[in-house]
């Protein structure tokens, strides 16, 4: 039986140390991905909570973001902004929140649940939609006060509902809706199904419906809509993957993200309550 030499023992010890060092390094690399820094071969999921009116545009934006960030999967959750705030406040895991108004974002920020100052990225206004044959012959906002019409709006705590209430105040018109929905897509659904004669939705929702099926609805624009504009802010959620969330926010504010939003009918933010970050190219740092 051969006795190990001192040199052999030292060599074995050195090899073991190298293995231990490599293992520690690998462990540290794996841990870094949790903060949003992606490593080679790693896979991450970014959870984005966004207002229902962003469904089409954010789905396209998420696809573009994933192409620019291999190994990242964007999980989208759409609902009324107030519902999303409630979910996040109750502990639902989210990395990014995009609201359809400043009020709901402020609620989240005031609760200390945003990781950074929210940034405005888009704006939206309201329009009237009716079934394609416009059975109620709606031609103006004032027509929505007709008691014979079945009108559907969003609930007042939802951004699209708050906008409807503001329009009533601006015009002096009182609407008696047959139902108040928790998200704007539900208002649109009741009109397209024929359950309602008219509904108040965002311009972007009407544009999307007509693009998908030109005969699905009739859109009735009215001049008073320009007096009520919803600004859309976005922010990383505290406790989430802040680094990756910042990357997603940067992409939304980039030329690529802004083009998707413009194509969907969104406008530039028009209020000063939430600061706007200038357009940047994907991958660049927003300043």
UniProtKB/TrEMBL annotation:
What residues does molybdate bind to?
53, 81, 184, 202
Record's signal peptide: 1-22
Any one of the GO CC terms: plasma membrane
Q: Does the keyword Transferase apply?
A: no
Q: Which UniProt keywords apply?
A: Cell membrane, Membrane, Metal-binding, Molybdenum, Signal, Transport, Tungsten
The record's annotation in InterPro entries points to: ModA (IPR005950), ModA/WtpA (IPR050682)
* Source species, domain of life: Bacteria
The subcellular location is: Cell membrane
Which stretches of sequence are listed as region Disordered?
Answer: 265-287
Q: How does it sit in the membrane?
A: Lipid-anchor
Cross-referenced CDD domains: PBP2_ModA_like_1
Q: Name one GO biological process term.
A: molybdate ion transport
Q: Mark out the compositionally biased spans (Polar residues).
A: 278-287
A single GO molecular function term of this UniProt record = metal ion binding
Similarity comment text for this entry = Belongs to the bacterial solute-binding protein ModA family.
Q: Which PANTHER family match?
A: MOLYBDATE-BINDING PERIPLASMIC PROTEIN, SULFATE-BINDING PROTEIN
Q: What does this protein do?
A: Involved in the transport of molybdenum into the cell. Part of the binding-protein-dependent transport system ModABCD.
Instruction: Spell out the subunit comment.
Output: The complex is composed of two ATP-binding proteins (ModC), two transmembrane proteins (ModB) and a solute-binding protein (ModA).
Q: What is this protein called?
A: Molybdate-binding protein ModA
Species: Luteimicrobium subarcticum
Q: What is the lineage of its organism?
A: Bacteria, Bacillati, Actinomycetota, Actinomycetes, Micrococcales
């Amino acid at each position: 039986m051969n006795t190990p030499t001192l040199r052999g023992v030292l060599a074995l010890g050195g090899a073991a140390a190298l293995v231990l060092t490599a293992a520690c390094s690998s462990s540290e690399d794996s841990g870094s991905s949790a903060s949003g820094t992606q490593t080679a071969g790693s896979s991450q999921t970014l959870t984005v909570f966004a207002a229902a009116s962003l469904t089409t545009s954010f789905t396209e934006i998420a696809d573009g973001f994933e192409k620019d960030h291999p190994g990242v999967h964007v999980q989208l959750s759409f609902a009324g902004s107030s519902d999303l705030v409630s979910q996040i406040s109750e502990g639902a895991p989210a990395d990014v929140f995009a609201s359809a108004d400043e009020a709901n974002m402020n609620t989240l920020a005031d609760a200390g649940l945003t990781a950074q100052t929210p940034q405005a990225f888009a704006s939206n206004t309201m329009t009237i939609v009716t079934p394609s044959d416009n059975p109620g012959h709606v031609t103006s906002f004032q027509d929505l006060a007709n008691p014979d019409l079945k009108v559907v709006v969003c609930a007042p705590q939802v951004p699209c509902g708050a906008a409807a209430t503001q329009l009533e105040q601006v015009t002096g018109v009182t609407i008696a809706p047959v139902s108040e929905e928790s998200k704007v897509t539900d208002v649109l659904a009741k009109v397209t199904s024929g359950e309602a004669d008219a509904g108040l939705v965002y311009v972007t929702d009407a544009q999307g419906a007509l693009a998908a099926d030109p005969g699905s609805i009739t859109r009735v624009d009215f001049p008073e809509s320009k007096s009520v504009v919803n600004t859309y802010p976005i922010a990383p959620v505290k406790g989430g993957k802040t680094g990756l969330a910042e990357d997603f926010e940067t992409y939304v504010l980039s030329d690529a993200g802004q083009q998707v939003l413009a194509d969907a009918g969104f406008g530039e933010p028009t209020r000063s309550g939430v600061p706007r970050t200038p357009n940047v190219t994907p991958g660049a740092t927003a300043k």
